[in-house]
Amino acid sequence: MLDLILLRHGQSTWNAENLFTGWVDVDLTAAGEAEATAGGVLLAEEPGLDLRILHTSVLTRAIRTAELALAAAGRSWLPVRRDWRLNERHYGDLQGKNKKQIKDEFGDEQLQLWRRSYDTPPPALTPDNPTSVTNDPRYRDLDPADIPTTECLADVVRRVLPYWESEIVPDLRNTAERGGAVLVAAHGNSIRALRKHLEGISDADITELEIPTGIPFRVLLNDDLSVHSSTFLGDLEVAKAAADAVARQAG
Length: 251
Prior knowledge:
The protein is an alpha/beta fold. The protein has 8 helices and 6 strands, in the order βααβαβαααβαββα. Helix content is 39%, strand content 13%. The protein starts with a strand and ends with a helix.
């Protein structure tokens, strides 16, 4: 059995301010740090879970969530792989803007299309937008054509799945031989992309999937990568309430 843990980062400063974040590199709030630590306690308490390797995005909120969670789980020593392809969805020119204000300006239907539809990207990032990553050293070795100026979830699926297949799946198979598990600490939309692929969620139904912050989601996979079982760790009602809170972020 292949053992996979998916962990969305804890509350970030821009989550708290209800802003579209995307590729902007913001840190965790104190509440987000507490969520990450609590997630690590759940990892430590989960029966039969033996974490062997960590994958994260290159954004601070995911990196720090993993560090805090693994410290609480006693696994700070895990080897780490980081890759931009696990980054959050790029929200284009919406980055840095308040979701409630976008709703008031453009209407709820348009907001939900930009926020949750599968194939409708927000307006592209304008050249003068201060959230551009053009000069960010973490992306300096990328082909400029690979750096998005906006993305829909379909775009995230297209960049996440090659990384899943080339990097995460081999680690899952290698660790499974020793009874181990792989932890992926990432973002709401990169995790939605993975779950859509793994669970065969339709383009229409993926719009309803909300990923709570800081709560580990364990997926046991068969050798053919089909899902054997999956569940949030800890109290399922707590996970549901946290997912509902994410759904209400747009006001």
